[in-house]
Amino acid sequence: MTVPSTRGLARLLPQPPRVPTPLGAVTFSGVLGTWHLAPRPATAFRLPSGGTLSRWTHRAVTLDLLTGPLPTPGSPWGAVWYVVAHRGLEVVDLTLGLPGATGSLDSSALTVTEAGTRVTLAGPAPDALAAYAREGTHLPARWATAPGAVTQTAAGALTWRLPALLPGEHARIGTAVAWNSASAEDAAWFAAAVPLETSLAALVGH
After folding, report:
1. Which of 70, 79, 125, 186 is the Cys-Cys partner for 108 at CB 3.0 to 4.6 Å?
2. Residues 129-184: pLDDT tens digits?
3. What pTM value is reported for the model?
4. Which residue, among 126, 106, 110, 142, has the nearest Cα to 23 in the 3D structure?
5. Percentage of the chain surpassing pLDDT 90?
6. What's the rounded Cα separation, in Å, for the pair 186 and 206?
């Protein structure tokens, strides 16, 4: 799998990607092989949708992170991760975090409730990862029987611990962030449950 083309996209000044919420900014981090993701990407581009493509490059891997608001109920922000392995990666950890917050984990969603506001960070559960792997489009087909796990790795952080990638393999997962009034019960949780294809189509402007 080759790295997606950025031909025709306007370059931006690289900045650490953030999702602004009423409880602070959601941040992105990761570990790919032995490489810990730097907060600031190497390059950044404006997507046709108005979102941002942030790209990190390393001799072993290229990571693209597509972020931006989505035109779906609840007005969530989408974040699509796209990992392309140039060398074997024994560790593939991708993390969303709300620094300083304490959340509660429910399956593959982490919800923080403070000051009358509820913020939810969410993405695919292991069964959804396995289904994508069986399709063989977004994840390696061999992941279907052991797709990894979703864990709360800090008080306000949610991490997808994915299986190893072989040279030339790729992995694409869609995550999302949504918020609402705490009185709206599970509104933010449902808003953050955005299918990968929906986020991808909205962010790339298709």
Report:
1. 125
2. 999 999 988 999 999 999 999 999 999 999 999 999 999 999 999 999 999 988 88
3. 0.95
4. 110
5. 83
6. 29
Q: Is 106 left (phi over 0), alpha (psi -120 to 50) or beta?
A: beta
CA-CA distance, 195 to 188, in Å (whole number)? 15
- Find tokens 């560790």 and name the residue: 91
Q: How many C-beta atoms surround the C-beta of residue 158 within 10 A?
A: 26
Q: What are phi and psi of 158, to 5 degrees?
A: -125, 125
Q: Is 170 helix (H, G, I), strand (E, B) or coil?
A: strand
CA–CA dist 11, 53 (Å, integer)? 9
On whether the CB atoms of residues 180 and 188 are closer than 8 A, the answer is: yes
Distance CA 203, CA 109 (A): 21
- Residue type for 99, please? P
